[in-house]
Amino acid sequence: MKKITFILLLLSISLNLGLIYKFFYEGEKVVLAKDGRSEIKMTEENREFVMTEMRGFLESVQKINEGIAKNDPEIITKVGQQSGTCKVDVVPQGLVRSLPYEFKQMGFQTHELFDAISKIAKKNYDRQQTQEKLNQLLNNCVACHKTYKISVEK
C-alpha cells in the first residue's frame, strides 16, 4: 500500500511540475519567427493591451528624460508611478499565461525600474542615478524587442 501511495505521489508531483512549466514558464503559443525572434501568438485583445502598454512605456521614458533635462523630479515621480507595478493589476485575463517566462521577467523588471526611478526622484533626487536607471530600463526595452515579436493567433 505504501508503495502505491509513493508512486501516486511521484506521478502527482511530476504532473504538477509539468503543468507549472507549461503555463508559467514556457508560454502557450511561442514559435520561432522568420527574423529569428521568438514570436508570441495571442488574442487581438491581449496584443492590443501589450502594444498600448509599450507605447505608454515609451511616452513615460520621454517624460522622464524631459524631467532629467529640466532637473524637475516632480515630472519624473509622477510619470514613474504611472508605469510602475501598479499597472500589473489591470492585465487582461489569459495574457500572463500566454507569455513565456523570460518575457514576463522583463515586463515585471521594467515596471519595477519605473518604480525605482520614481522613488529616486521622490526621496533623494540624483540626476546621474536617475539617468542610470533610465538606461537600465531602455536596455530592457531593447532586449525585449530584439528577442520577441507579438502577433495575433489565427
TrEMBL record:
InterPro entries from the entry? Cyt_c/b562
Q: Name one GO biological process term.
A: electron transport chain
Q: What is the lineage of its organism?
A: Bacteria, Pseudomonadati, Bacteroidota, Flavobacteriia, Flavobacteriales
Q: Where is the signal peptide?
A: none
Top-rank lineage group of the source organism: Bacteria
What name does the UniProt record give this protein? Answer: Cytochrome C
Q: Name one GO molecular function term.
A: iron ion binding
